[in-house]
Amino acid sequence: MSLNLGNWQLDTVNGGMFRLDGGVMFGVVPQQIWKHVAIPDSKNRIQCANHCVLARDGSHTVLVDTGYGGKYALLDRKFYDMEPGEPLLEGLAQLGVLPEAVDCVVFSHLHFDHVGGSMRQDAAKRLSLTFPNAQHVVGRIEWENASSCLPELVTAYSSQEVISLRELTRLRLVEDGEEIVPGLAARLTGGHTEGHLSFMFRSNGQTACYPGDICPSTYHLRRMWHLSYDVLPLETRRNKPRLLAEAADDGWWMLWNHDPTAVVSRVNRDEKREFVAVDSSKTL
Q1: For the chain, what is the total number of helices (H) and then of strands (E)?
Q2: CATH 3.20.20.370 applies to domain 2-282
Q3: Which of 56, 102, 104, 247 has its CA 20 to 30 A from that of 135?
Q4: Residue 216 C-alpha from the chain's centroid
Q5: What confidence tens digit (pLDDT) does each residue in 234-256 have?
Q6: Alpha helical stretches, state H, 20-157
């Protein structure tokens, strides 16, 4: 998918398809309901995309999230049915973009499927930066939680990746509303994690929003449909409808992260279903 938004060219790049338990993806929604929109396999897993976004404006080459990368062990890859190799780098190569050309990597949050592709691992298990010339941008609250070593968060974040981001990158911490580069701003949405960010691309009166995991797909447009991983579900239920209402009223494009069929959509208000996706660009 390629979307021209004023000065921005936005391209979706595959960060690696995978499967995740349906109960994880839909939280309190019963399987008897969610199975009608996402068909589970024999292990109760549903297909999830991992759409990263490559954004270019002639001055900057920005990558939003990095997928899970190629360094996970075989058991992990089997558990999540991850794609082999390094899908993100393969996708960038198809667009003619070398890793060295990316000058800014921004993370919605630091879970494995969003940050894993930021590092590569050699045969001796030594880590190196996938994007060696890029500034790496994380929300301040997200970074504080990920690096806190709090016992209740220890399984949410990889200490190896957090340490590597600290030691190997030009790390920049940003606040709610801060402009990262001209025409790209961070928006604190919380919910999924306390410091979860969405990203707003704006140019020539147009807006495209990457909501990240506060609304990971067109299946999650209803207030109560959200991931069981959300650490602050009440925030998700408050902030997601606010974001979607702005998108509907102002005609934003929404860049879905985990939707296995829709890459980008607009959204409309709907009396029965709260919001619906329209004008979707499909994948697969």
Answers
A1: 8, 18
A2: no
A3: 247
A4: 7
A5: 999 999 999 999 999 999 999 99
A6: 22-26, 31-34, 74-80, 87-94, 112-115, 140-146
